[in-house]
Amino acid sequence: MVVDYLPAQKTDQLFHALSDATRRDIVERTFQREHSVSALALFYPMSFAAVQKHVAVLERAELVSKRRQGREQFVRSNVAAVKKAQVLLGHYEDLWRGRVDRMDVVLEKQSRKSRGR
Fold first, then answer.
1. What pLDDT score was predicted for residue 44?
2. What's the whole-model pTM score?
3. How many domains does the chain have?
4. CATH number where 45 lies
5. Nearest to 11, CA basis, from 69, 86, 111
6. What beta strand segments (E) does 10-80 contain?
7. Which domain holds residue 47?
8. Sheet strand arrangement including 35-36
9. Confidence of residue 91 (pLDDT cuts 50, 70, 90)
10. What is the DSSP letter of 89?
11. What's the rounded mean pLDDT across residues 71-80?
């Protein structure tokens, strides 16, 4: 069951981190290659400190990891965390499809009753 797959706090952190367009873009850019935080900051119309905060949110959600090289911090995406999100979303999709399938059965039964009258 998906509830056992990931603790609620981690699930919340994961989806909170992915809820922001800038953070999703950072994840995408760091999938392509590792970037320093200062290089990432050049892509966005915000301060360096704001980009650092976005990276911190992503790091808490384990969507990215950082490594220090001298004075620079380099960011890379964590494929495993994105796969966790994919599994969770897949579970929710399965639940929804199951409900839609059950609705189809109910509607078909109602339709037969209506035609039978």
1. 98
2. 0.76
3. 1
4. 1.10.10.10
5. 86
6. 35-36, 64-69, 72-77
7. 2-116
8. 35-36, 72-77, 64-69
9. confident
10. H
11. 95
